[in-house]
Design brief:
alpha+beta, five-stranded mixed β-sheet, binds coenzyme A, transferase, Diverse_Substrate_AcTransf
């Protein structure tokens, strides 16, 4: 097991978290899709209405002071099921390449799961790319189920342009 500490992110971690978010985007071959920066993270995660929570993994023995390089993060937020009540969405789980296969990902995931249990969440859900077999195996290995396969639910999304077109068309009086 790697010598890391998992803790809640603070506003001072945003630059490091942003670096890891970009690494994950590169892993997905979608580096050009990252449209925010650490200022947005600070505002959205640590303002009056936090839109996400984040746990970070910090090596116990690397770096000095407050600026230790982070080696992983788990971003999550609370969601709600009209049938089952409180639920949790794990948006991102990432461990930087050199630190993989030493238990860091499991540790971050376990901490999010523990927090969700403490909040009495009925489940934790997340999306994984179909080609990401390594991550899929990792999740399966710890008891997670591919819910799309089991339940036939598809993930839908409307992006900004489509949202605007839809609202302008269906609520023209408010445009
Ligand atoms: C998926 C990911 C988060 C896993 O993180 P990780 O730190 O490598 O995960 P762990 O080390 O806890 O577990 C990985 C494997 O190492 C093994 N392992 C755990 N502790 C270990 C240790 N102390 N020593 C050696 N191996 C260990 C685990 O058994 C696991 O094997 P398994 O997948 O066959 O069960 C990481 O690979 C990653 O960031 N990948 C790229 C981004 C990504 O795909 N994220 C998920 C998007 S949905």
């Amino acid at each position: 097991m790697a010598d890391v500490t998992v803790r809640e992110a603070t506003v001072h971690d945003c630059e490091e978290i942003m670096r890891l978010i970009k690494e994950l985007a590169v892993h997905h071959n979608e580096a050009d899709k990252v449209a925010i920066d650490e200022h947005v993270l600070r505002r959205d995660g640590f303002g009056d209405t936090p839109y996400f929570h984040c746990l970070v993994a910090e090596p116990s023995t690397q770096g000095t002071g407050q600026q230790r390089p982070l080696v992983g993060y788990a971003m999550y937020y609370w969601t709600y099921s009209p049938w089952c009540g409180k639920t949790c969405c794990l948006e991102d789980l990432f461990v930087t390449k050199d630190w993989r296969n030493h238990g860091v990902g499991t540790l971050l995931w376990a901490h999010v799961t523990k927090t969700a249990l403490a909040r009495e969440c009925a489940w934790v859900h997340w999306v994984v790319m179909d080609w990401n077999q390594q991550a899929r195996d990792f999740y399966h290995g710890n008891g997670a189920t591919n819910w799309s396969e089991k339940d036939g639910r598809l993930v839908y999304r409307m992006t900004h342009g489509t949202m605007t077109t839809f609202v302008n068309k269906r609520l023209p009086e408010t445009a």
